[in-house]
Amino acid sequence: MSDKAPRGIRLVIALTGRRNAGKSSLINAICGQEVAIVSSHAGTTTDPVGKHYELLPLGPVTFFDTAGLDDQGELGELRVKATHKVLYRADIAVVVVGEDGITEHERSIIARVQELSIPLLVVFNKNDLAAPKDADLAWCAEQGFVPSVVSAETGKNIDELKAQLIAAAPQEFKEEPLLLGDLVQPSEVCVCVVPIDLSAPKGRLILPQVQVLRDLLDHDAIGLVSKEHDLPATLGRLAEDPALVVTDSQAVDLVAKNVPERVALTTFSTLFARYKGDLPALVEGAKAMDSLKDGDTILIGEACSHHTLEDDIGRVKIPAWMKKYTGKNLNFEVFSGHDFPEDLERYSLCIHCGSCMLNRREMLRRIRECRRRGVPITNYGVAISKLQGVLERIIAPFGL
After folding, report:
1. Beta bridge partners of 94
2. DSSP character for 164?
3. What is the pTM of this model?
4. What is the pLDDT of residues 350-378, one digit of tens each?
5. N or C: which end of the chain has fewer CB atoms below 10 A?
6. Whole-angstrom distance between the N-terminal and C-terminal Cα of the chain?
7. 327: alpha, beta or left, given left = phi > 0 and alpha = psi -120 to 50?
8. Cα 62 to Cα 170: distance, rounded to the nearest angstrom
9. What 3-state class would DSSP assign to 193?
10. Is residue 380 within 8 Å of residue 269, measured between CB atoms?
């Protein structure tokens, strides 16, 4: 079952440490099966390898078994670099300490993990061979974390370690996200503005629009649908103001002019920026547009591949609007697929799609990866609202 779970819904747990600290053995002990190659020869694990497991109640997770931090030589340096890259995608980092105790290798990686704000567990493995040194335990206490003491060989404290892994999972992996049920009360009206243009699929609405309408029904609210040019007539036929108007981002400028200031207004993409990701972080990323310089390269991130139309939002409209807004000579690169470019640091800004085809965990992971590597990130809808000068109004319903 866990092998078939999409990568986007998996909690990523990265095990790191020196060679022969027992990382592979620890994964096997946690999973209760031989999923990682174990050898007494140091350096058996070369490149990071993902191992799938069902860690209840969290569900499917991926353990990354990484190369030793003390790997040597030119190839060893590349392996250590690959290990560090895994940390950018990690939701939890486990630093495995062998019988030799904590050295500069462990201290360095622990400092790096703390710098990236990744939940951290320090695990003293091989307790069957040697107990943790008092000095190492004291150092851990000074750093503010309580280490685990286990033996992958005998199974000692493995169940307790599993419980610690579950407890260490970021809160966003445990809570149910909000779409718009907190913005509209039962029996209140929400007007959804849905343009029908070249990018609109024939015979149906796009997934975010469908999900918003369904969420309104689930919360006993009333959903009305209107095209942007029919919005004034739609509002005029209502006996009282709607509780909320939600518009496609591409029509936000026109809709903002036709919706009275007293009526709450936002966009589908902004709703999904909160539902699928981290809205404050994406708003902060949009403000980075004001600091762009000539020659900066912007990453356009797409979660899925699609046929490009002449008015494509990510490849045509947003670049044109950004050049007009900033007055700068900017470069744009489109990246479609599950992973970000390895050289993410060379981008001055990432503008991501609305993530309708991504799980929340995957979108949060992309946001964290950008922020850890110093790259501001926003999404299509938030960026468009910024470019059209209506961002503050669009985020007002969320108390931002």
Report:
1. 15, 121
2. H
3. 0.71
4. 999 888 777 777 788 789 889 888 999 99
5. N
6. 40
7. left
8. 15
9. strand
10. yes
